[in-house]
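Interim report, section 4.2 (structural modelling).
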Amino acid sequence: MSRGARVAIAGVIGLTAFLIMWELGVRVLDVQPFVLQAPSRIVTELVDRPGLYLGEALVTARHAGLGLVISLTVALLLGAVLASSRFAEDAMQPVLVLVLVTPWVSYFVSLVIWLGPGDRPVVFLVAFVTAPVLTFAVTSGLRSADPAARELLASVDAGWWEVMWRLRLPSALPTIFASSRFAVALALAAAYFGEGGNLRTDGLGYLGRVAANSSLAQQLWATIATTALLGIVMLTALTVVERMVLRWHPSQIGIRF
Amino acid sequence: MSGAGGQLSLRGVGKSFGPLEALSSVDLEVAPGEIVTLLGPSGCGKTTLLRIIGGLEPATTGTVLVAGADPAEARTHKRIAVVPQVPALLPWRTVEANARLLLDVNRGRNPTGAPDARDLLRDVGLGEFLGAYPRELSGGMQQRVALVRAFALGAPILLLDEPFAALDEITRAEMRHLLARLCERIDTTVVFVTHSLAESVFLSDRVVVLSDRPGVIVGIVDVDLERPRRPELEDDPDFFAIETRLRHLLHDGIRR
Ligand SMILES: Nc1ncnc2c1ncn2[C@@H]1O[C@H](COP(=O)(O)OP(=O)(O)OP(=O)(O)O)[C@@H](O)[C@H]1O
Ligand SMILES: [Mg+2]
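Predicted structure of the assembly:
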């Protein structure tokens, strides 16, 4: 049996065992519906209204995806500057840490007032909370380029942009991909929360908030499950891209498609 | 390509890093097409001297002329090709793309008439590995790519900093024979840094022996062995005689 097949089978066994224990736990202990729903009830809800959840998932995916694209763009630009100047990095470090540690739950209302209700504050929140993580990754990744290769390029007077494009950016990719996993998880959480705290947008977070306000426990848990599935889909897509882009990297060696 | 302009002139070159004096008043003239080896104990400033010639580090004292120009200017005009101590291949580039790396940047300054990278790779026995990635190569093969990368630039001056230091004895011997063949075929001025007596005698027209830090020239030995140099030469009594002279000079420089 191939390694890939073994991993897949082990994963399925683990997940199945987890779901069975969850189902039994909820039934045996008679857990309140809002605290925890049995997987069977969540599945029933999803199967009953697949269109609804798929549609809302696409909205949430758009919010998270758009925010991540903006955040990555900012991180690449900012990271290039920070990696080129120690002073800029030292100056920017506390600001990024501040953004990272400030609980976004606390200031989201202000964002809605500032940007108006709708998609904009949600996308902004996603981009804002993921930018520090990605910026740190880009900066340290760009710095990690082999000094001997840098000297080699300097010996033929390669330009700043050429060094960036041909050496530093490729060297940074493994670090950027590794941090992107955290960024994806963070982005989904921010999108779900932002949609819920918003007056005029769709998305799983909005659906979850409505469910919570109307005591629809089954619907609330269906949005939670759908968000988790969306996260798995996004991480899988990221892994596929990573394997294609980083074919040369030691972390990917031995992996076959 | 002729070696015209491939000339190197060092006058009273010294280098200090703060209080540490690495090199002291080095005078050296290298003729076009000449192959000169720098031989000296560890830490005597050989790498520093190469970096000064390559325009990567300014000298503290003295003047350096590379092909009649300032080293920094020679560098911007891509007149200098460097082979570092480690191969420094880019893992995401194939062998062939790595061999072309120096041509792919600062393109406006590419010299005309540079030898074809693909031909050179075939020449050094890597014809079947053009599309391979560096991790699929042995250490010796990687260093061969690094040599080709420098030769493919077609620069009039080649600087090599202990390129074979990390290789085993047998591979090292093969590599110096291969480098001699490449130098035979492509006419460039070469400054070669090494710890190895055999390498210095086999490859050079002249060997410059440096002392302990701060490096000063303790002697220059002409190597009047026939060219082209063949591997059999290493069994020749004349070869041993020059090696012995160099060894004595080196020891004098250390005990100084
Ligand atoms: N950037 C630097 N800053 C401070 N000191 C330096 C720097 N570069 C070299 N040195 C010092 O200059 C001296 C000469 O160094 P260099 O690397 O040129 O020696 P080397 O002859 O190449 O030695 P090896 O054969 O071991 O490579 C050493 O004492 C080293 O510590
Ligand atoms: Mg050195």
